[in-house]
Structures are given as C-alpha cells and as structure tokens.
Write a structure and sequence with these properties.
By secondary structure, this protein is of the alpha+beta class. The chain has a single domain, classed as Lipocalin (Beta Barrel). It is about 15% helix and about 55% strand. Strands 1-2-3-4-5-6-7-8-9-10 form a ten-stranded antiparallel beta barrel. The chain is globular. About 5% of the residues have low confidence.
Length: about 160
C-alpha cells in the first residue's frame, strides 16, 4: 500500500474507532430509565412534603415534575425534562412563573446516577442524582452551597 493511501486511511480508521467507542445518547437514556416513577421526598422541612415524578416519553426524552407542598397546599412546582439538544443531553428545569427554562448539560452518567452542570447559572450550577436500591440522593450545589434531597420510590420501604 502506498504511503499516500495509508495517510488517508489512518484518519478514517481513527474516526470510526472514536465514534464506536463513544456511548450513544440512546444508550445514555437507557441508563436514566430507573428514574421513571414517583419518588417521595423523605427529608422535607417540618410541615412540608414533596415528590418527583418521571415518565419515559420516548427513547430520547424523559419528562418529570417536582412538587413541594405545605400541608395540602402546593407551594412550588418545577417542570423537568431530559432531552437531546444537538449532540448533548440536557436536564431542563422550568420553574412556575419563569419564562425560560434552565439547561444543565449531562456531564457524567452510570447505571446508578448522573451529574448535570451549568456553570453560568446562578444557583444551582450542578445537579447530581445517586441511586442506591429504592433510594435516591439528589444534590443541587454551587457557590459553596449545597442542598440534599433524599427520595424513596413510592411503595418502597
């Protein structure tokens, strides 16, 4: 094989190897499916309660809602989504009353959790979920501040 052909073939082989080595967005979404269902917050402030619900909309979209209650009164709602935008996956948060959602890029994922980040956002800058069986610890953090949300899957003990 001539040197010229070899020089053309090497970059092509590197591109094929790189694209095969990277995990597809569909594979990443499969790792997020454990999130579907209803999660009851177990560490709410006194007199408050909360939950998150997540639904699989398609192979590349999850839709959720976070709700905080004071007694029986809803005091806070956030619409949540995992979507693909361009080549990246984003955790999207839209608070009631806000005109625009906030996008947090998925920066790490495994079978039991994920991390999403938006360094330009005021707070939080980072959202992390870590699952252990039927329990989830979600942490929002940034600016040397951190808030933990502990959840249990509805119907679990």
């Amino acid at each position: 094989m001539s040197t010229k052909k070899l020089l053309l073939l090497i970059p092509l082989l590197l591109c094929i190897h790189t694209s095969n080595a990277q995990e597809s967005n569909k594979q990443k979404f499969k790792k997020l499916e454990w999130l579907t269902g209803k999660w009851i917050r177990t560490n709410s402030d006194a007199g408050h309660s909360g939950y998150e619900t997540w639904n699989k909309i398609s192979d590349l979209k999850l839709s959720g809602k976070g709700v905080t209650l004071k007694g029986n009164e809803v005091i806070f709602i956030e619409e949540l989504e995992f979507i693909v935008k361009g080549v990246d996956i984003f955790y999207v948060v839209k608070l009631t009353g806000d005109k625009k959602p906030v996008y947090f890029k998925l920066t790490a994922i495994d079978n039991n959790g994920f991390t999403c980040e938006n360094p330009a956002h005021d707070f939080p800058k980072k959202i992390t979920y870590k699952r252990s069986g039927n329990h989830v610890k979600a942490v929002i953090s940034g600016n040397r501040e951190s808030i933990d949300y502990i959840f249990i899957r509805e119907g679990s003990k």
